[in-house]
Write a structure and sequence with these properties.
Length: 431
Amino acid sequence: MIKIYDYENCNISDINNCDNKNNDEVNKIVLNILDDIKTNKDKALFKYCERFDGVKVENIEVTKEEIKDAYESADSDFIKILEIAKQNIYFFHKHQLQNNFITTNKDGILLGQKYTPIEKVGLYVPGGTANYPSSVLMNAIPAKIANVSEIIMATPPDAEGNVNKDILTAAYIAGVDRIFKMGGAQAIGALAFGTESVPKVYKIVGPGNIYVSSAKRFVYGVVDIDMIAGPSEILIIADDSCKPCVVAADLLSQAEHDKLASSILITTSKTLAEDVQNEIEKQIPKLGRSEIARESIDNNGKIIIVKSLSQAVEVSNYIAPEHLELSVQNPFALLSSVKNAGSIFMGKNAPEALGDYIAGPNHTLPTSGTAKFSSPLSVDDFLKKSSFIYYTKEALDNTANHVINFAKKEGLTAHANSVSIRTCKKDVSKA
C-alpha cells in the first residue's frame, strides 16, 4: 500500500526516491562488453546479441522491404494515430529551431554563430518484451527537423528474431534511415565504435534499461549522448477539488512502467490523501501490469501532506520530477514557481499520458533529480553550434596590443607573435 507522510514530521530524504548510485556489477559487465565490441566488432556483437537477446540473428539489419511491408500491413487506425502524433510533435519541435546570427558592433569586425546538424545519430528504442513506437517518433522527429543526415535505429528483436511491426511502422513514418536488430549494452557499443555491419554514429539518444544507461555513460566522450535515463517518475500536486479516482489513475500510469518507477502525490488535503490511497488499492488488481504496479507503489509510492500549495511546489522543486502534474483549480498561479521539472501538465484535463503519446512536447525527459540541471530532448540535441570571427586589417591593428599583452601575461609568446607578425608590432617572441 502507498505510504502517507506528513511533511512537517518527516525527513526530506525519506520522501526522495532519487538514487544516482552506480551499480558496480552492472558497470563491470558493461565495460567488458564495450571493450570486446571495440576490439572484435561484429564477432563480439553477434555473440552478445545471441546471448542477451536470445536469438541468433543472421541478418542484423532490417531491410527496406521489411520496413515498408510493416507499414503497408499496419492497422489503418493505428497509422492515423501515428500521423496525428507526428504532426503534433513536429508542430511543437519546429518552434525550437534557432537562427544563425552575425553581429557588427564595431567597425571592421564580424562575429557570428552558425548551427550545423549532427551528421549521424543513433536512436535506441527499447524492445523485446515491450514495444514503444512512441519513442521512435519522439526521438526521430526532432532529428529530422534538425536535418540530421542519417538516423540509425537500434532495437532488440523478439523471440523469433524480428522487430515489432508497430516499431517498424513508426520508424517508416518518422523517416528513420536504417534499423538494426540489437539491444542492450552491445547495441550502444556498436553504435559508438562501429563494426563491420553497424556504422559509427556521433551521438546516441533514447532510453533503455540499466545496462543501456551504463553503456551510454561509458561511451560518452567517444560519442555524445542525450542523457542517462532512470526509472519513470510522476509527481502530482493536487488540491481538495480533485477526484481521488483520477489522481490514483494518474499515479498508476507511471507505476505500471517499471518496478522501480516512482509515483508521488503532494496534497494539502488529508481526506484526498486517504481516498487516493484506497482508490489505488481498488485499481491495481484491474491493471494488465498489476504485479509491476503493485511493487512500484509499495516500494516507491508516496503521498505527502503539506500545509499549502506553495509548500507543495517547494517540495516538488527539491525532488525535481520527470513528470509534474499541477492538478489544481488554478495551475497557472503555480507555474512561475516551478523551477525543476521535466514536463509540466497543467490542470485536471492534462494527464501525463497526453505527453507520452500525442500532445507534442517530447517525452524523453530528465529523471532522478536531473531536471535540476537538464532538459527534455529537443531539436537542440541534434545541432552543433560554431562561432566565427572576421577582422579587417584595420580592426586587427586597433586591438593588436591588447592581444599581445594578454598573451605575454600568460607566457604564450607564440600567441603574441601570431598577432605581431601581422601588424608590425614589437616581436615579443624575442623579448
